[in-house]
Write a structure and sequence with these properties.
Blueprint lengths: L5 H17 L10 H4 L2 E2 L7 E2 L6 E6 H7 L6 H4 L5 E4 L9 E4 L13 E5 L2 E2 L17 E8 L12 E7 L7 E9 L3 E12 L2 E12 L8 E15 L2 E16 L6 H6 L6 H5 L3 E18 L2 E17 L4 H4 L8 E20 L5 E23 L2 E27 L2 E18 L11 E19 L2 E12 L3 H4 L15 E14 L3 E13 L2 E7 L2 E6 L2 E14 L4 E14 L11 E9 L9 E9 L2 E2 L7 E2 L2 E14 L2 E10 L7 E4 L9 E3 L4 E11 L1
Parallel strand pairs: 6-9
Antiparallel strand pairs: 1-2, 3-8, 4-5, 6-7, 8-9, 10-11, 10-37, 11-12, 12-13, 13-14, 14-15, 15-16, 16-17, 17-18, 18-19, 19-20, 20-21, 21-22, 22-23, 23-24, 24-27, 25-26, 27-28, 28-29, 29-30, 30-33, 31-32, 33-34, 34-37, 35-36
């Protein structure tokens, strides 16, 4: 396991007792429990307060989602969470760039290195690739972000876990209509219905978002539906059924820009994107069910089953010439994918003397994905001759066990192990002269052990230390291409990482809370972008990388109406040769001051935000970087209640200083089109009206 710098650990450990003794005197007022200590379930797969969870975990509430923007992108809300970077590329054809502690920053599209779960159902495929675009934020009630060793017990994900939960069902039948608008043709319309009775609940949510795009050739449209039905079948059995759908037609891809292009005109588009009409159409439907059954007062069973379909049409920006090569896969990607899985988990609690307990959890998971993938010539945006035809299958068979033992009223030991088995198979149905049969298979096997200790040093201070091993396989897209030759990239190895984390959670009286985490991660065979050109990427393994970091977050209810939030992340992510890991900021910060006067007319509330993102290096050789950027955002809102109706209005102004900066970068782009411009100053107006029947 890696070791933290000895001097740093001694300073932190020596400081905590003194700080704890001084802390209670700082308290100002009583704070709502949901602000300082929300309930979470991700850390140990059971309901517990975030203060008691023995890991670095943060929760984002519904209030934050509603005030953060149009509720379209995770970047609106997760920028306040330390340790996670969510970069909005202003390119809906490529999704967000999401990374935790630097894992996932290599992604050119989709989410890698981070596990996504929605209402207990995986939003990450068995190979480790996920999509954030399918998450319906307009009906999300809570988002949890788990970082560090404990995340390794969730499987094929090295960085962490992002888990989204649909909001609680309304206490009585309630209908909501929402609308928002902003510059560049942005608008969103949504309808939602929610109701519940004892033992029964239903939430239905549908929305449609459209934008002309800030840049040329970047228009997008996204329709979403999310529905959850839940019921207590018996006193001991609870079941939920979740249905969601995504419809994203004809989303234009403007590609990245070179530095000179970005500095000259950030709204321009590469001519090749126009001539080849680079774009993407995605449709996805999924249904899943989770059942929870109490076998006895101390034993419970949880099971899940889900099925889904996803189709894609993706016109890439590859020039016509290279597509004519006998081994080329063309410039249009099409697939029809079916996926599903099941899991079973049993949890048991053994009561010990003096109120101590042993908590045991074990389970198995099986997930499978099968797709029919084809490639065609992209003839000026039109589909041409067939160039690729294959059937791909990937499946995982995992098992896990976790135990938590109270050895003393102040001390708890936690241990766990997850075994990971992932198998890839491809059947090639396009065999021609100079294009051989590329059928084949690959298997990856790993084991993730985790060990931790928690010390409840005082009622207002918890200290924990965790160590664990992570395992991350390549995704099918990362295996699909070689720099030369055809067939799966069988030279690409799974990466392994050793994690060590020391953290503390401190309540300063009843109105303030401070969380801190120091971590060290050593990784072997990290998967990196090798060549990225024309919308297609090849990948390679790095020999060794290391990460050293510090995460801090502070929340305070300063007065009855004034609340502050501060989060800071320092991350030193380096290759063995000393170069920085591209796409990963080494400094990031978020600060917010929110004002909600209790006696204000019309439910007035306001807030000011500062968001800082450090420099983003664009290439493994650190040849260039997107400069660090600090932006300021302002918001204000009103709320009125009238005859069973509730009306709300929100106005936001983001990037108040009109700062020109690159919001994200395309790592190792073969054409040096690394830069993706962020939006200049922009405004948002959001309105809602809901009625309780």
């Amino acid at each position: 396991m890696p070791t933290m710098p000895t001097m740093r650990l001694r300073v932190i450990c020596a400081a905590w007792p003194a700080l704890a003794a001084a802390g209670p005197g700082w308290a100002q007022t009583e704070a709502p429990a949901t602000v300082l200590d929300p309930v979470v379930v991700t850390a140990e797969r059971l309901r517990q307060s975030s203060f008691d969870a023995p890991a670095a975990i943060s929760a984002v509430t519904r209030e934050v989602l509603e005030s953060g923007g149009p509720q379209v992108n995770l970047s609106e809300a997760l920028n306040r969470v330390p340790g996670i970077t969510v970069l909005n590329r202003q390119n809906y054809a490529q999704d967000l760039q999401l990374s935790i502690r630097g894992f996932g920053s290599r992604s050119t599209f989709g989410i890698r290195g981070v596990r996504l779960i929605v209402d207990g159902i995986p939003a990450t495929m068995p190979d480790g690739q996920g999509q954030a675009s399918s998450i319906a934020l307009s009906s999300a009630g809570r988002i949890e972000v788990l970082r560090g060793p404990m995340a390794q017990l969730y499987g094929n994900a090295a960085g962490g876990v992002v888990q989204v939960f649909t909001e609680d069902d309304a206490a009585q039948p309630t209908a909501t209509v929402s609308a928002s608008a902003g510059p560049y043709g942005q608008n969103k319309l949504g309808v939602k219905f929610s109701t519940s009775t004892p033992g029964y609940g239903l939430t239905l949510d549908a929305s449609r978002y459209k934008t002309d795009g800030y840049r040329d050739h970047s228009a997008a449209e996204r329709g979403q539906f999310n529905g959850r039905w839940q019921s207590d079948l018996t006193r001991d059995t609870h079941v939920s059924v979740v249905v969601n759908a995504l419809d994203q037609p004809g989303t234009q891809d403007p590609l990245g820009l070179t530095r000179s292009q970005w500095e000259a005109n950030p709204q321009q588009v590469v001519p090749l994107a126009i001539s080849q009409d680079s774009r993407k159409t995605v449709r996805q439907e999924q249904i899943g069910s989770v059942i929870e059954h109490r076998l006895s007062p101390d034993t419970s069973f949880t099971g899940r089953l889900y099925l889904g379909e996803r189709s894609l049409f993706n016109a890439l920006s590859i020039p016509p010439g290279p597509q004519l090569s006998p081994t080329s896969s063309g410039g249009i990607v099409k697939f029809e994918r079916r996926y599903g899985g099941l899991a079973a988990q049993v949890s048991h609690r053994v009561a010990l003397r003096d109120g101590l307990a042993l908590r045991l959890t074990g389970g198995i998971e099986y997930d499978r994905m099968r797709e029919n993938r084809q490639g065609f010539i992209n003839d000026g945006g039109a589909q041409g001759d067939l160039k690729r035809d294959e059937r791909n299958t990937v499946e995982n068979r995992d098992a896990f066990a976790q135990a938590s033992l109270d050895v003393h009223p102040q001390w708890t030991l936690t241990g766990g192990l997850r075994t990971i088995n992932v198998r890839f198979r491809t059947q090639d149905h396009f065999i021609a002269t100079d294009n051989p049969d590329d059928s084949g298979s690959l298997s990856y096997h790993g084991a993730n052990p985790v060990l931790g200790v928690t010390w409840r040093a005082a009622p207002e201070l918890n200290v924990y230390m965790n160590a664990g091993r992570g395992f991350e396989t390549p995704t099918f897209n990362e295996l699909a291409y070689r720099n030369s030759g055809t067939g799966l990239n069988t030279d690409l190895r799974a990466s392994t990482s050793n994690h060590l984390e020391l953290g503390a959670k401190w309540k300063l009286g009843t109105a303030q809370r401070l969380d801190a985490a120091l971590f060290a991660i050593n990784t072997r065979d990290e998967i990196l972008v090798d060549i990225n050109s024309g919308g297609r990427s090849t990948f390679k393994n790095a020999e060794r990388t290391e990460r050293r970091g510090l995460e801090l977050s502070h929340v305070a209810q300063l007065t009855d109406s004034l609340r502050s939030t501060l989060s800071l992340t320092a991350l030193r992510a380096r290759f063995e040769n000393g170069n920085r890991l591209p796409g990963t900021p080494e400094r990031s910060a978020f600060a917010e001051l929110a004002w909600s006067p209790k006696a204000a007319w019309g439910g007035f509330h306001a807030g000011a935000e500062l968001v800082h993102t450090g420099a983003l290096y664009v290439h493994d050789d650190n040849r260039d970087a997107a400069p660090a950027a600090t932006v300021f955002n302002l918001r204000a809102g009103l709320a009125q209640d009238l005859a069973g109706w509730r009306f709300t209005q929100l106005v936001r102004v983001d990037n108040v200083g009109d700062r020109r900066y690159a919001g994200s970068v395309i790592v190792n782009d073969g054409n040096s089109r690394f830069f993706e411009p962020a939006l200049p100053r922009q405004w948002l107006l959001a309105l809602t009206a809901n009625h309780a029947f």
